[in-house]
Amino acid sequence: MTSAAVAETRTFPPSAETVARAHVDAAKYEEMYAASIADPVAFWGEQGKRIDWIKPYSQVKDVNYNFGEVRINWYADGTLNVSANCLDRHLKTRGDQTAIIWEPDDPNDEAQHITYAELHRRTCRMANILESMGVRKGDRVVIYLPMIPEAAYAMLACARIGAIHSIVFAGFSPDALAARINGCDAKVIITADEAPRGGRKTPLKSNADAALLHCKDTVKCLVVKRTGGQTTWIDGRDFDYNEMALEADDYCAPAEMNAEDPLFILYTSGSTGQPKGVVHTTGGYLVYASLTHEITFDYHDGDIYWCTADVGWVTGHSYIVYGPLANGATTLMFEGVPTYPDASRFWQVCEKHKVNQFYTAPTAIRALMGQGNEFVEKCDLSSLRILGTVGEPINPEAWTWYHEVVGKGKCPIVDTWWQTETGGHLMTPLPGAHALKPGSAMKPFFGIQPVVLDPQSGVEIAGNGVEGVLCIKDSWPGQMRTVWGDHERFEKTYFADYKGYYFTGDGCRRDEDGDYWITGRVDDVINVSGHRMGTAEVESALVAHPAVAEAAVVGYPHEIKGQGIYCYVTLMNDREPTEELRKELRQWVRTEIGPIASPDVIQWAPGLPKTRSGKIMRRILRKIAENDFGSLGDTSTLADPSVVEDLIQNRANK
Ligand code: WTA
């Protein structure tokens, strides 16, 4: 990532054809961006009209970024319903158009084409089922499902009745699931018997059973049949979705929601403590998700759009479900993985469904690049027009491969930088407006004012050719509003370090032309295969094991995953470091958090480098993990400098 920021000098201007087709060309971008900054109220007041309101708003923006009084409101006196915006308002004009193309894990199983009319009926039925289970406006519903259409029905059904959903990625363990159910005090969890992925099956229902042992016994469980695999059943607690859907009514009236009523909670990792529940609300979120979806991907009516993310992450929320459906798009939902049955699966799906916009993560691109070009070249990718990436910095080699081998040199790549907290893209090149630079997120989206601050003084660094921490100067409608149940944590995390700004946690460089390059997190959050992880979470999982006295976890560069998880573990005095114990600890973390948190390296550490006041010097641990011993910096302030020598000597050989 940093190498790209320093070494990359190529630029790729859009073709005349791309420009001619684009919603936004260079001149329009300049004009709209300037207008959005000069008068945000006028700009967003106008943009808000792209969705349907029950009661139109008269206020547009009410924001205070001052630490201690942070308040973020958009369209605050308007009312609307998100599911009506994603469904009902399309029925007249595109009821028979495919809303969701569902591509199952196994290519031999049939794909489904779900029209807007069908999606509306399915959503209404699910909404009625939830209501019959006692779910009311403002109640929380946890969704723990495979990538199946029912996941979209469930999200939209919650939105329809005003329940707040919280999706938990199916790769999380029962413990992590229980923590999230309890964290938002959910009334119902929606799950499936099993989740097929890459030919294997995750036992979701039995994970949910295990999680529910740690939850209030009033929590009910709605079970969708996916594989038909056997599950245990508790009468009175477990409900059979497929059976109930046969009986449920096809219509459910959409609830009138306030623009600032929560739409969903999504737990995400931070630099300290346990994951926090990011809260997104109704009106501003939908305006922002739909506008960015249309402009960034240059979506036009009739296009087939595919985002390969999982609905368990924010990308799936904004760019599989809410943004595309609000725009009346055809959105593809894929249950499987890029390498099953083999490394041509993505490209076969593109060919089969004639995908026009394709949006994925750099980690997938790197994994597929390593398999050879023949997997791509045997597929007809002529439908592709726009390519996108998200989740982590993309290295120039992967960018070039994506551009040349997948896009045949003619598809612009939108490198979209954003976060769970931001609801939608904050920086990205726009296909018809910007000359691409491989690895650069290029330009702010409308209404976004990025600033580069000096990390120590917090003073804004003006001019170009500068580097520092990335903050945002003012709010945008898609911004998170609070941390669920803990507004103080929200303020402390995002508004305390750099007063008056939203602090992103990322570092960035603004190059000589004023274009932005994300250089990676400046805090203790790591990005593993595009999955965001707090090192503190992995540490607390490790120290919960009886053999572990202390643990420190850092990220290190990993060829495919972007970053890998490197753990330094100090054992209890009476424990011997064995291979067996290493395996046990790895399994332990998988059980505590989930397979996505599986440690890549565990190094036994008789001691950890600490300051005299007992603070672990992570900077040093990061350097050792990176195999970069030359720049350890000043170690003289350590309580015991000799531990560093030991760690270097025994650095795991991986
Ligand atoms: C990183 C994912 C470089 C960044 C939508 C951010 C990126 C974190 C990019 C958020 C990108 C995301 N280039 N880095 N295009 N996109 N990131 O919350 O460090 O899972 O802070 O949201 O991913 O991860 P999250």
TrEMBL record:
Residues 537-615 form the AMP-binding enzyme C-terminal domain. GO terms for molecular function: acetate-CoA ligase activity; AMP binding; ATP binding; metal ion binding. Mg(2+) binds at residues 543, 545, 548. Its cofactor is Mg(2+). Residues 88-475 form the AMP-dependent synthetase/ligase domain. InterPro entries: Ac_CoA_lig, ACAS_N, AMP-bd_C, AMP-bd_C_sf, AMP-binding_CS, AMP-dep_synth/lig_dom, ANL_N_sf. It comes from the Bacteria. Residues 29-86 form the Acetyl-coenzyme A synthetase N-terminal domain. The keyword Nucleotide-binding applies. It catalyses: acetate + ATP + CoA = acetyl-CoA + AMP + diphosphate. Acetylated. Deacetylation by the SIR2-homolog deacetylase activates the enzyme. Gene3D superfamilies: 3.30.300.30, N-terminal domain of ligase-like. The modification N6-acetyllysine is found at residue 615. Keywords: Acetylation, ATP-binding, Ligase, Magnesium, Metal-binding, Nucleotide-binding. One of its GO terms (cellular component) is cytosol. Pfam families: ACAS_N (PF16177), AMP-binding (PF00501), AMP-binding_C (PF13193). The keyword Ligase applies. Its EC number is 6.2.1.1. GO terms for biological process: acetyl-CoA biosynthetic process from acetate. It is an enzyme of class 6 (ligase). Belongs to the ATP-dependent AMP-binding enzyme family. PANTHER family: ACETYL-COENZYME A SYNTHETASE, ACETYL-COENZYME A SYNTHETASE 1. HAMAP family: Ac_CoA_synth. Catalyzes the conversion of acetate into acetyl-CoA (AcCoA), an essential intermediate at the junction of anabolic and catabolic pathways. AcsA undergoes a two-step reaction. In the first half reaction, AcsA combines acetate with ATP to form acetyl-adenylate (AcAMP) intermediate. In the second half reaction, it can then transfer the acetyl group from AcAMP to the sulfhydryl group of CoA, forming the product AcCoA. This is Acetyl-coenzyme A synthetase. It comes from Ruegeria marisrubri.
